[in-house]
């Protein structure tokens, strides 16, 4: 009897409560009901009134993040499990900071999804809706689709790493309008077509385009790049190395043209890159002699022209460079090396295997060499190859044969899919 009464009372009071809630907070009831459903992954973003946010800007991005969470199709490490509640700054992968326009506010300033292997059909409607985003790093995920034009609205974005994902389509041109972009890494995707020449006019510090399907003649604007690191390897870039490359002499430190389809003779302006530590144009279709101007690459450690159609003498002056660790000319058609270069061969620095150098081991057959030289070969301006556009003193003192270290070489790290480059560059 008593229990029945209790039950009735409980029911009545709940109905009353329900009723008064409906009158006072018609919305909150709906939200409460929502809260209790068991599968948050299926529910639309919660209306954030019930959550208390540390800052209005976090309340604004909360539904954006929840919507993105709902389109994630794979999350092997359970990262998105932490994307609950109002403490957005504590979600795994998200970092908050004071936005430049209001130093008392808190906003999502940085996202680091490196290596999380998240899969989503698009980033559209996600990063382009986080107005205070300054860094987005997503190396080794499975994001796909094309890059939304809306990305152009991210006024603070300065580092974008989309490397090793499944992005398709043309080069993401919306990036060209980002005012402060300094780091762009889109290597290891399936981008096709051409790279807009304008990208070399941006004030970038690092540009990694390697391992895509870009097909195009290198534009003259390449010489306008302010990048320290420029990696174009493993694409289908064609045409000659632009002479304008000489204009990058104050900044360019590591450049990889490796594994493309570049043709023509090497412009003497390459020798103007006095800051260059790595210059790698291996496995292309470059021809002509090596310009003596390379003598001016005072800092050069790795100089690679292996696997081209180069010929002539290896200039002795180039072999005088004291910081060379790996100077590879293998698989060309060089015919002569002098004593300075022979010393480098002995030191294991210079590699001239598979050339046409009489008296050295591991050379091409006489027939092969004869066949190559049967065709008349020349460069447009033969006099350029003897220009040495710097003051040359005695041979540089060789710093004792250094062990070849790829550790600090950012450009070669870019050739590994999973490497996160921002760590190196900064
Ligand atoms: C932040 O998240 C971790 C788990 O991801 C949790 O243990 C911790 O309590 C959270 N901190 C705050 C302040 O909410
Ligand atoms: C700056 O942010 C704080 C915290 O969100 C806010 O209270 C304040 O109104 C903002 N100031 C301006 C000028 O928007
Ligand atoms: C460098 O740029 C200037 C103009 O900015 C141009 O006149 C010059 O030809 C360029 N140098 C090279 C080597 O392209
Ligand atoms: C030197 O460079 C060539 C061409 O990139 C490369 O194949 C070779 O492994 C390098 N040598 C060393 C010792 O790393």
From TrEMBL:
Pfam families: LRR_1
InterPro entries, per the entry: Leu-rich_rpt, LRR_dom_sf, LRR_extensin-like_regulator
Keyword flag Plastid: no
Keywords noted in UniProt: Leucine-rich repeat, Repeat, Secreted, Signal
Record Gene3D superfamilies: Ribonuclease Inhibitor
One annotated Gene Ontology cellular component of this protein: extracellular region
Claim: Methyltransferase is one of the keywords in the record: no
Cell compartment(s), UniProt: Secreted
Coiled-coil stretches noted in the UniProt entry, renumbered to this chain: none
Main location: secreted
Source organism superkingdom: Eukaryota
Signal peptide positions on this chain: 1-32
Protein name in UniProt: LRR domain containing protein
